[in-house]
């Protein structure tokens, strides 16, 4: 085999081996109060907002999927003080650079009891913005709905994942979880999120550079041995 063919083969092999997703963000919600220091942001746009948007999980309602029993983030119907109000509680990730290969995955669980709970996963391509408007129905910069999960009965922890395949180029922005209830008089109880991760596959050019580096090292060893 000629050295050129050998290099080409090694590049292809290294590229294939390197085509694995990198973890862009990982969060197990062991310390919800400490999320702010890591770039997370909260906003409560509920009708007559009260209390904390998202809080440390209550192990008395259900335990976390992994780790300590309360190691998850939760939201509930107490986001509004109005007996017939709507809830729109937002939890924003730190600023991320995402592309079409990016996937957000997490576990979700509802407490049930016949009250419909819903969480949406939304995306803003507007950098560090956390603008979601000023009402319980507005979404502001987060008009891109990646997916949603809802249930009125106890679900156990459910694996969910959503893709950002619609992004044409790498884009800087934020993901957001939105706990949304239309009317607490008829819906809304308690929901939890655990073991959230965002992954992305490196650009093919990165694979090629990695492959050339590996090829050069192997060839050097081949001809100097």
Question: Strands, helices and their partners?
Answer:
Elements: H1 3-18, E1 22-27, E2 41-44, E3 55-56, E4 73-76, E5 87-92, E6 96-98, E7 103-110, E8 117-124, E9 144-151, E10 158-163, E11 171-181, E12 190-200, H2 204-224
Antiparallel strand pairs: 1-12, 2-5, 3-4, 4-12, 5-11, 6-11, 7-10, 7-12, 8-9, 8-11
**How many domains make up the 3D coordinates?**
2
Poorly predicted regions: 2-17, 205-223
Instruction: Indicate the CATH topology of the largest domain.
Output: Jelly Rolls
Number of H/I helices: 2
Question: What's the mean pLDDT score?
Answer: 87
Q: What is the CATH architecture assignment of the largest domain?
A: Sandwich
> What summary fits the major beta sheet?
6 strands, antiparallel
SSE pattern: HEEEEEEEEEEEEH
Strand percent estimate: 25-35%
Description:
The chain has helices spanning about 5-20, 205-225; strands spanning about 20-25, 40-45, 55, 75, 85-90, 95-100, 105-110, 115-125, 145-150, 160-165, 170-180, 190-200. With about 220 residues, the protein is an alpha+beta fold. It has two domains: about 1-20 and about 205-225; about 20-200, Jelly Rolls. The strands form two sheets. Strands 1, 3, 4, 7, 10 and 12 form a six-stranded antiparallel β-sheet that branches. Strands 2, 5, 6, 8, 9 and 11 form a six-stranded antiparallel β-sheet that branches.
């Amino acid at each position: 085999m000629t050295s050129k063919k050998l290099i080409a083969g090694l590049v292809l092999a290294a590229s294939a081996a390197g085509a694995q997703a990198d973890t862009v963000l990982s969060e197990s919600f062991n310390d919800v109060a400490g999320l702010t220091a890591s770039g997370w942001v909260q906003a409560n746009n509920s009708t007559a907002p009260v209390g904390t948007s998202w809080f440390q999980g209550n192990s008395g309602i259900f335990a976390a999927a992994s780790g300590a029993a309360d190691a998850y983030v939760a939201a509930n119907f107490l986001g509004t003080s109005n007996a017939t109000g709507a809830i729109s509680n937002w939890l924003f990730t730190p600023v991320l650079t995402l592309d079409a290969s990016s996937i957000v995955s997490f576990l979700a669980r509802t407490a049930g009891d016949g009250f419909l709970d819903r969480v949406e996963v939304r995306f803003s391509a507007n950098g560090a913005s956390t603008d979601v408007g000023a009402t319980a129905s507005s979404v502001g910069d987060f008009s891109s709905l990646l997916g949603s999960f809802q249930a009125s009965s106890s679900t156990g922890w459910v694996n969910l994942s959503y893709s950002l395949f619609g992004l044409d180029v790498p884009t800087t922005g934020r993901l957001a979880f939105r706990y949304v209830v239309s009317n607490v008089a008829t819906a809304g109880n308690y929901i939890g999120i655990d073991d959230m991760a965002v992954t992305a596959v490196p650009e093919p050019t990165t694979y090629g550079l990695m492959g050339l580096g590996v090829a050069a090292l192997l060839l050097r060893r081949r001809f100097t041995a």
